[in-house]
UniProtKB/TrEMBL annotation:
Highest taxon in the source lineage: Bacteria
CDD domains with a match to the protein in the record: GATase1_PfpI_2
UniProt keywords, alphabetically: Lyase
Keyword Transcription regulation: no
Taxonomic lineage from the root: Bacteria, Bacillati, Actinomycetota, Actinomycetes, Micrococcales
Keyword Lyase: yes
Organism: Cellulomonas edaphi
Pfam families assigned to the protein according to its UniProt record, in alphabetical order: DJ-1_PfpI (PF01965)
GO MF entry, a single one: lyase activity
Domain DJ-1/PfpI stretches: 8-176
Protein name: DJ-1/PfpI family protein
InterPro entries linked to this entry: Class_I_gatase-like, DJ-1/PfpI, INH-QAR
Length: 199
């Protein structure tokens, strides 16, 4: 249901999406919608509006179909093994390029960057992806300046993140960028995200 906010974020879901690539950013962004006076609208959508089965079996029923999602300020594109087929689908890549034309900020998590690279969104840009996918990224577009150390890379109108849990860090960065550092800290506290490696 629409919140009436002019600030809309859409998370694209598809068969084979990595679960945490979807729900990590969603958790951050939904918490942002609760704590911020901006009350951004956060929606999930699939190609046809139908449910999807993620990489490890989680089924997700999205809010909308791609044709009905309407204007977005931010598009979040998760990774997962399903990105390989999408990166080779000319119709899907044309849709990604169309979204690029009308969406101010494009973000990817993990191997979502492979689809962006295949669509030409990362040409000559610095970007990151899952640690195991850098060879694939550069093979898709040799002009990409791959950053294999960053948790996320903000290159203006395109933001990419490293693998899986790095999508949480990227989403918090988006909150800080689009709202404020104080609100991002409030969201981090709300979701009790305080990463400290256990080993």
């Amino acid at each position: 249901m629409s919140t009436g906010s002019s600030l809309r974020v859409g998370i694209f879901v598809f068969d084979g999406a990595e679960e945490l690539d979807v729900v990590g950013p969603y958790e951050v962004l939904a918490a942002w919608a609760r704590v911020s006076p901006l009350h951004p609208e956060v929606v999930t959508f699939s190609r046809d509006g139908g449910g999807v089965r993620c990489a490890k079996g989680l089924c997700v029923v999205p809010d909308l179909a791609a044709a009905d999602v309407g204007p977005l300020h931010v598009l979040v594109y998760p990774g997962g093994h399903g990105t390989r087929a999408l990166a080779a689908d000319p119709d899907h890549l044309a849709w990604v390029r169309e979204m690029r034309e009308r969406t101010p900020l494009m973000a990817s998590v993990c191997t979502g960057a492979l689809v962006y690279a295949a669509a030409g969104l990362l040409t000559g840009r610095t970007a990151t992806t899952h640690w195991s996918a850098f060879d694939e990224l550069v093979a898709l577009d040799p002009s990409v300046l791959a950053d294999d150390e960053a948790r996320y890379v903000d290159d203006g109108d395109v933001v990419t993140s490293a693998g899986v849990s790095a999508g949480i860090d990227m989403a918090l960065h988006l909150v800080a960028r689009l709202d404020s550092v104080d609100v991002a800290r409030a969201v981090r506290r709300e979701i009790q995200y305080d990463p400290a490696p256990p080993v």
